[in-house]
Write a structure and sequence with these properties.
about 325 residues; Helix Hairpins; about 0% strand; single chain; elongated
């Protein structure tokens, strides 16, 4: 019962821990998914902006190229008009000299007519040059404005490209993180379910045990009176049996004592006879061993002397060799 209660406490802690970790993983996963969603949305927005700005830049480039071409064309016309104006002024100077040095009135009138025509044409050229210069200035201002817009758009496109790279990396990292956290979420969900199932099993076992207890108490309550009755019945019977066994035991003990005394009396003479028989035999054996030992000792002495006599010269020779 105590072990089951301890197991319930342990499983409850495991369930709470799994639930806590599951919630953390779920929160982190939702954050990662939210970041991924925002990054993806931002990436699409940036791509649209880049596309729009590139189209705008392309349009401005076309306008800028057209304006630049117009400006170059007007500048060429102004240069031609200025060159023509220069020639016209030279012709005016020449005509004025002709009027001054005319010999007749007809020559003078003809020169004066020519001068009036040149002056009129000169005024036209000056007016044309002024008009074209005004147009050129306006086109030049347009070219400068469009160049600034083009430069600004180029910088914006570069920034958007950098932002696109950063958003793509964020989206990839968030996706990986969400995938990893999904695995952790599944793991903690399984752990929580396992702990819950284990708790349910333990509670079921505990419920069964609690149901068995009243039945066991009833059975024990029933067994106690029966056991008392049986014990009460056994006591008189045991006393009677004990009373019967005592006289029988005394008779048996009385019968065994004379028999034991007779057996002990029979064993003592037999033991004495056996000891008396063993003594002469031991003396004869000792007497036989003594002469044999003396003969063996007598044989070993001459052999030992001969061996000692042989070893002495050999020892002397060896000592002499060592000295030399």
């Amino acid at each position: 019962m105590t072990s089951l209660e301890n197991l319930i406490v342990k499983l409850h802690k495991e369930k709470q821990e799994a639930k806590k970790l599951k919630k953390q993983a779920e929160t982190q996963m939702n954050e990662s998914l939210s970041v991924e969603k925002r990054s993806s949305s931002g990436l699409r927005s940036v791509e649209k902006k880049i596309q729009s700005e590139r189209e705008e830049s392309s349009g401005i480039s076309e306008v800028l190229a057209r304006k630049t071409s117009q400006l170059e064309s007007i500048e060429r016309l102004i240069a031609m008009a200025e060159e023509k104006l220069k020639r016209e002024k030279e012709m005016v100077d020449e005509t004025e000299q002709e009027i001054e040095f005319a010999e007749s009135s007809s020559e003078k009138e003809s020169a004066e007519e020519k001068l009036r025509s040149l002056n009129a044409h000169l005024q036209e050229l000056l007016s044309e040059i002024k008009s074209r210069q005004k147009t050129a200035k306006k086109i030049f201002d347009d070219v400068e404005n469009y160049s600034k817009i083009q430069s600004k758009l180029s910088l914006q496109i570069q920034k958007q490209i950098q932002s696109k790279s950063s958003l793509r990396n964020t989206m990839i990292d968030s996706r990986r993180s969400a995938k990893s956290l999904l695995g952790e979420l599944e793991k903690q969900t399984k752990a929580e379910e396992f702990a819950k199932k284990s708790l349910d099993d333990v509670f079921l076992r505990l419920k069964k045990i609690s149901k068995r207890k009243p039945a066991a108490k009833k059975a024990a309550a029933k067994r106690k009176p029966a056991a008392k009755k049986a014990a009460a019945k056994r006591k008189p019977a045991a006393k009677k049996a004990a009373a019967k066994r005592k006289p029988a035991a005394k008779k048996a003990a009385a019968k065994r004592k004379p028999a034991a005394k007779k057996a002990a009396a029979k064993r003592k003479p037999a033991a004495k006879k056996a000891a008396a028989k063993r003594k002469p035999a031991a003396k004869k054996a000792a007497a036989k061993r003594k002469p044999a030992a003396k003969k063996a000792a007598a044989k070993r002495k001459p052999a030992a002397k001969k061996a000692a006599a042989k070893r002495k010269p050999a020892a002397k020779k060896a000592a002499a060799k060592r000295k030399n």
